[in-house]
Design a protein that fits this description.
The protein is mainly α and about 140 residues long. It is about 85% helix and about 0% strand. The protein has three helices and no strands. The mean pLDDT is about 85.
């Protein structure tokens, strides 16, 4: 009897830890989105605020294209990295729920949001490239 109570307490503790890990991964995903879009917006503002005579050498354009590509690809990479972490924690949470609450299937996830945010970041990157390569 005591063994069963200890096992349930262990499962509850693991369940809480997994919930905290899911929350952390989701927060990291949001932070990545905010920072990536802010950096892209900063480059767009720099592009729009730079006089056209500064663009004559083209090295500044190439520099901005490389920086924007690195920022965008890093942002998308980290979004999906945190998404995969969330999925791993959710499968672990599902296993604990089966043992603890005798539930068959618990489905929750936000993979669609990762896809949507990837599309948003990619669209912002294309806008950024257009503004860099075709300055006013």
């Amino acid at each position: 009897m005591q063994n069963s109570i200890d096992e349930k307490e262990d499962l509850r503790l693991k369940y809480q830890i997994v919930n905290d890990n899911i929350r952390f991964a989701k927060q990291q995903k949001w932070n990545t989105i905010y920072y990536t879009l802010t950096a892209i917006g900063g480059i767009i503002a720099l592009t729009l605020g730079t006089p056209s005579k500064f663009w004559s050498g083209c090295s500044f354009q190439y520099f901005l294209v490389i920086i924007s590509t690195v920022i965008t690809s890093s942002g998308i990479y980290f979004i999906w990295r945190h998404q995969n972490s969330s999925e791993e924690y959710r499968s672990e949470k599902e296993d604990i729920r089966k043992k603890l609450f005798n539930e068959e299937k618990y489905k929750a996830g936000d993979k669609d949001f990762a896809v949507i945010f990837t599309i948003i970041i990619a669209a912002a990157w294309f806008l950024e490239l257009y503004l860099i390569l075709y300055p006013r």
